[in-house]
Amino acid sequence: MYYGKLIYFLIFTVLLCAGCSEEKNHKEYFLGPNGEKPADFIYSFQKDYKLAGTEALTFFNRVRDFAEKNSMYGGLDTKDSKDLISKHYVAGSPMKFLLQIVQLDASVYRLQISNCPGRECTLCSDFIGSVDSKLSAAK
After folding, report:
1. What are 41-57's pLDDT values in tens digits?
2. DSSP alpha helix (H) spans, the chain
3. CA atoms within 13 A on the CB side of 138
4. Domains and CATH numbers, the chain
5. 60 Cβ partners below 8 Å, 6+ apart?
6. Cα angle at 44 between 101 and 83, to 5 degrees?
7. Which residues contact 112 (CB under 8 A, 6 or more apart)?
8. Residues paired with 103 in a beta bridge
9. CA distance 24 to 43
């Protein structure tokens, strides 16, 4: 009788774990060598901001706070030969969202949010509601 229960328990355990060893079929995404978005990613939000002096610092601080609030981590930050900067924040493991700030000239910055295909960009609506609306209202 004891062995019968043990056999049922072993069969139950084997059936329970039968699907555990399957690997998840997902694709890993990485930033390009100069901070480019992965080729498969699509832009869900893009806007240019003309910012002078302290407005730029406020902009960077608000974007950083937004990224931290949404569990994004800082990716590659670059500076080109003209001293124009690019900042990157990444969400997810594997990467699901990419937030980039690209300086176009001395006072113009482009903010872009891209995501992997087939994924709704919830970050976009959060960003528009919490950061973009405050920046637009400040002008």
Report:
1. 888 889 998 988 888 88
2. 2-16, 54-69, 122-127, 133-138
3. 16
4. 42-134 (3.30.160)
5. 87, 101
6. 15
7. 37, 43, 45, 46, 98, 99, 100, 102
8. 109
9. 26
Pick from 88, 93, 55, 91: nearest CA to 74: 88
What residue type is 99 in one-letter code?
A: L
87 with 100: CB under 8 angstroms?
A: yes
pLDDT score for 110: 92
Q: CA dist 1 to 4, 7, 8, 10, Å?
A: 5, 10, 11, 15
- What are the pLDDT digits (tens) for 75-133? 777 777 777 888 888 887 778 888 898 889 888 999 998 888 776 777 777 887 877 77
Residue 33 near residue 73 (C-beta atoms within 8 A) = no
- Quote the pTM value: 0.70
Measured distance CA(45)–CA(65) in Å, rounded: 18
Q: Is the pLDDT of residue 20 over 80?
A: no
Higher-pLDDT residue of 103, 13: 103
Report the C-alpha gap between 57 and 137 in whole angstroms: 16
Higher local confidence (pLDDT), 7 or 16: 7
